[in-house]
Amino acid sequence: AFFRTAPWPYLVLLVCGNMTPMLLHKYMAINTHATKPRVLLIEDDKDLLEMAEAFLRPKGYQVLFYEDSSAALKDLENKKVQCDVIVTDLNLPTLSGIEFTKACKDMGVTTPIIIMTANKSIETALEAIQAGAYDFVVKPLNFIQLLVAIERALYLKKLEGENDTLKDTVRIIEGTHFEGIIGKSEGFKKAIDLAKRVSNST
Questions:
Q1: Which stretches of the chain are DSSP H helices?
Q2: Single pTM value for the model
């Protein structure tokens, strides 16, 4: 299955003996998580948590729950929990959704964060985005709207992951001697040049 679905940079590195464990892990992560993404949901309303789980699980999502944003932040910091998307309420007893988002960004968390809020003001939306949130959805919660926001966030994360991996591939290729191959293959030269230009364009 790997040889049928892997992008050409991975096959180049694999054939040339330069497929590192890091790159293999990235490839498997990008292609495995997409089949069953993990959504970390932070909400102190237990009824809403149950409804969100009932809506998302049949659609192939793993749903992880936290009622306390401070506990979620601590577990993220200690790498006790891993997820593909974070959905957090704005108003929480300990850290607000915006405070939580800022703290995540300060820790270097790159997982897309979606904030749920009952406040429809433009100021609140701008504050959420400026804090580092990818998107926000308005309460009362429309689960279809939430699903669309989650799927958009996952798509963005997948694109970013593929681009990071492509850049890693180019760096490894640039640091490897391929004189025997490159000297005989004009197509290989063009492929490497294309990879460099694509990786530098984003």
A1: 2-5, 8-15, 21-33, 46-56, 69-77, 97-107, 122-131, 143-174, 179-182, 186-200
A2: 0.68
